[in-house]
Amino acid sequence: MNVVIVGSGIAGVTFAEKYRALSPDAEIVLVTGEHDGYYSRPLLSRGFTKNDIEQSIILKSFDKLRENNIDVIAGSEVTAIDRSAKTVAIEGPGQEKSLSYDKLILAQGSAAFVPPPLRAYEKLFFSLNSLIDLKAMRKFRQPFLNQNIKPHWAIVGGGLIGCEVASDLAVAGDKVTVFHAMDRLMERQLLAEDSVSLLYVLQASGVEVLLNQSVHSFVEEGGKLCVKTDVTAEFDALLVACGFKPRTELAQHAGLDVARGIKVNPYLQTKDEAIFALGDVAELPDGKLYAYILPIRSQALWLANYLAGQEQAAWSPAPFTTKAKVHGFEAAHPYNL
Ligand SMILES: Cc1cc2nc3c(=O)[nH]c(=O)nc-3n(C[C@H](O)[C@H](O)[C@H](O)COP(=O)(O)OP(=O)(O)OC[C@H]3O[C@@H](n4cnc5c(N)ncnc54)[C@H](O)[C@@H]3O)c2cc1C
Q: Final residue of a domain: which of 222, 242, 262?
């Protein structure tokens, strides 16, 4: 069996390692746009209070995976799928090639979602979705720290990532203002009373929280960045944290069914029986995306067992809860299954 995996997040790497353990003779190739190894995405939002984060976030080097007989093609993009020839096209530094597969595993994760009105200002703001993004934010911040200046950040979005990053930047000593469109923080994950506690915790750490704010544009003026809502306010840096968008384009161009994510059946199989999807990019028949570490790990282990012939029953999610990694805040939020 010749298996090609696209993506080196928890979905792709967990699947690759488990399938390698179960199928010693299989050929496994993992293609990824990343350069730095397999890292913990949840830790990105602790990227300002941990000085050694750029190293400690790496859970496994790509060489370690190669030692385990998983062929990793790093820093490369799968740009097309030819379903009739069962090949994928790959573009990387100085190379273009095609790989054939018996089974193709799409584990491409998600990109940061940017609301349409803000897309025109892409050069003015950061997103925090990958290690490259974190390094860019840390690099921007360093000259301020060198001069003992506290940069003032505007964070657009008071959801999970916006609140976590606001907390971490504030605890690291920066000034932070959060603009949130709704009347309470993390309204999609938290009970109303927990949103109130979260607001107090953030305020106590020095974060300014502005609710019911519709941010419609940014302007760069005299070295400062302005956020335009009903009023205008000035900042050193902007972060847009408005959710995530599964990377469905590759599947869509290949003629697979796509809605919010790549549509799969309860066996994580797309409408093409040789192609499977899991993790942030997969949409289950109930219309849900299971974009959290625990269910993704469960999908990856299940799929490896299924393809190795050791599992017959369909994947089903177990109940799980996650916690917002806001310093000093404890409420867990059960996922609504
Ligand atoms: C800041 C932050 C904090 C979070 N905190 C938590 C938390 O506390 N708890 C929790 O449960 N979840 C958390 N999450 C969500 C969790 O991290 C994700 O659900 C999970 O990492 C998704 O894993 P994945 O493997 O599906 O995708 P990803 O980790 O996104 O990996 C996808 C990979 O695919 C690669 N790729 C994409 N397209 C291509 C292509 N065409 N060719 C080659 N490679 C490609 C990308 O380079 C990437 O390596 C957080 C997410 C973020 C961003």
A: 242
